[in-house]
Amino acid sequence: MSSEIDPYFSGEKLYGDDFTQDQIDAWFTDETEGYNEISDTPRERGVYGYHALNIRHGFRHFKSCEFRNALGFGSAFGEEFLPIIDRVKEITIVEPSDHFVSRSIEGHPVEYVKPVSSGELPFKAQSFDLIICLGTLHHIPNVTFVVSELHRVLTVGGQALIREPITSMGDWRKPRVGATKRERGIPLGYMDAIIDNLGFKVVNKALCAFPVFNRVGSCFGISPYSNRVITTLDHLASTVAPGKERYYRPKLFQKFAAGSVFYVLAKSQ
Known about the structure:
With 269 residues, the chain is an alpha/beta fold. 27% of the residues lie in helices and 22% in strands. It contains 8 helices and 8 strands; from the N terminus they run H-H-H-H-E-E-E-E-E-H-E-H-E-H-H-E. It has helices spanning 6-10, 21-31, 34-37, 51-57, 143-153, 188-198, 211-220, 228-240, and strands spanning 67-73, 88-94, 104-105, 108-113, 128-134, 154-165, 200-208, 260-267. An 8-stranded mixed beta sheet has the order 3-4-2-1-5-6-8-7. The longest helix has 13 residues, at 228-240. It starts with 5 loop residues before the first helix and ends with a strand.
């Protein structure tokens, strides 16, 4: 591994976060339909498998009972809103893929907006009192700027949920089974620093996605993160197991550590 790429695999730097606009444009083109291109059967509505995970690490920590305007950043069909759908008045979803556009979520109207490659959001400051961004940022090159845009459009006192993988997801310079061409996780310390530098208040931070539980779920045909018991065990294993700070995990034993982090954030000023 060359010394030039070393800081990215160590987690000191985030690959893509320092790209030029031309490089960002190329990445954006590759990722627009990336999820559908790696799957023989593109995801359809009704198969969302993270409700128990989102409730445990996200929604149960909410302080507000009602939300006026909510933003789903990369929310596809918007199914992550279902546990709180009756508490949200208006929903806007930023989504690049035409495959996921839906007219409503359980009868609640949704407005879809296409993202632009720069990451700039076409909304005024403090437009949303709730932002949900789950598993989207690792598909984006300029993560620091995009998170700053999420912070900008969040109201003071508003809340945001962010969940992202904290491993490299292998060597992103080579084709990987089950991964799009460009996606890579975000180092835990790097993500912590972005959040801290923007002035977010961390309401809750939880480690999750211990790899064993996904394997067990696949073997038994269940969705582990739709199951409250498995989600609880996953959290415990992710919390106590060492190695969460290691970003690139090429050896088998290194993979037995938390795979993702889940934040509940508040904007205090």
